[in-house]
Design goal:
single chain; about 280 residues; alpha+beta; DNA polymerase, domain 1; two-stranded parallel ribbon; 10 helices; 7 strands; about 40% helix; globular; disordered C terminus
Amino acid sequence: YHNAYQIASNLRQKIMKDTGLPISFGMASSKTVAKMATNAAKPNGQLLIPHGDEMKFLAPMSIRKIPMLGEKTCQKLYEYGIEKIGDLQRVELRFLETVFGKAGIFIWEKARGIDHSEIVPSSDRKSISTEHTFFKDVNDKRTLETTLVSMTEELSSKLRRENKLASCLAIKLRYANFETHTQQEKISLTAAEHILIPGIKNLLSKAWNQSRPIRLIGVRLSNLTTGSYQINLFEDNEERIRLYQAMDNINFKFGDKTVCRAAGMEIGTRNFNPFLKG
């Protein structure tokens, strides 16, 4: 994929020249390794991992660098003296299955850069989604809702930027043992977070067994169709529409999250103002 790497490199140079913004990318034979290569290339670089060099590239890294590997799993691996991905690569699959069950297969494959997830060709997508893996498993409702608000803001802003509307919203929950649950519901076409956020919070209440801490949480908006956000005569007014337009313009100019809901900011950071120094 040398030509693909050159094309991506040229595109990166053009973006930096046109915008003055730093941009990084990584390229590899699997999505997992490409993601980790991108992280290694930050804040402003590029990195190619040739096919066959995946394990060599991953070996010196901390096991914490493996996507979706939670804190409890890392601590368990530490107990066995496994701190680097290279250490993990030398462990037999049978041992990991004994300790972690089915999740052991996932851990074994990730340490080797193996990723079976499908790469979907570019098309008129029908959904957008985002996920967040917590550093420590979470069972605090306020923390979960704060994360959901932030993710829903991000997705609804993307919908408006792409002139799209969604008619289905869904939540994804993954527990510490990698057991995953989803919950979804149909809604009227919208790209407005003041409609989407209450719906997402309601789905959390339905889907979450509150006695079990959560490792990963995700939001998906689907059944997308082309169209601009329009005023709901019973709920909206011109001020609300202008507010969304102003927020989108500021975030486009200065970067995502420059303006956002306080409810979507991490607890303890709600006095943050990007325009104030010191």
